[in-house]
Design brief:
This is DoxX family protein. About 75% of the residues lie in helices and about 0% in strands. With about 140 residues, it is mostly helical. The chain has one domain. The two termini are about 25 Å apart.
């Protein structure tokens, strides 16, 4: 049985607020990260320097704008696909910078591998959000 456009109104289908809560859960790491970095910009700069990223201050500012802006797009529904895709790409890039478990000492490898694959899964979920938003737009539903 193929899902139809009426699936969202079918009894037992997730309501709009439950869908929004799921989007909030996917956005939470970026909202938290962006707010913490904005509140302690010095620590955000130190984080960039820790990973060898330069120039640290402009990169830290760009990350804050990206995390908060893309999360806002996802939650508002305005260009949700773009916000989700931006966060997916950012997550993949950051994961390969920060969670290189294959280079970690043996005692740190397990935890870093877990973090690596959790972030890969998060990026996959964000790609699904983008894909579904684009699918709905093509079906003529607007910003659903």
């Amino acid at each position: 049985m193929r899902p139809t456009a009426r699936a969202a109104t079918t009894p037992g289908a997730p309501s709009a607020w439950l869908r929004w809560l799921a989007l909030l859960a996917l956005s939470a790491p970026y909202l938290q990260g962006g707010l913490v970095k904005a509140a302690d910009f010095g620590a955000a700069i130190a984080e960039m320097q820790h990973f060898g990223l330069a120039p640290a201050a402009p990169l830290a500012a760009a990350v804050i704008v990206l995390e908060l802006g893309a999360a806002a797009l996802m939650l508002s529904g305005r260009l949700r696909w773009l916000g989700a895709l931006a966060l997916a790409v950012f997550t993949l890039l950051a994961t390969f910078v920060a969670n290189r478990f294959w280079q970690a000492p043996p005692d740190a490898r397990f935890g870093q591998a877990n973090a690596f694959f959790e972030h890969i899964a998060l990026a996959g979920g964000l790609c699904l959000v983008a894909w579904e938003d684009l699918r709905q737009r093509r079906a003529g539903r607007g910003q659903a």
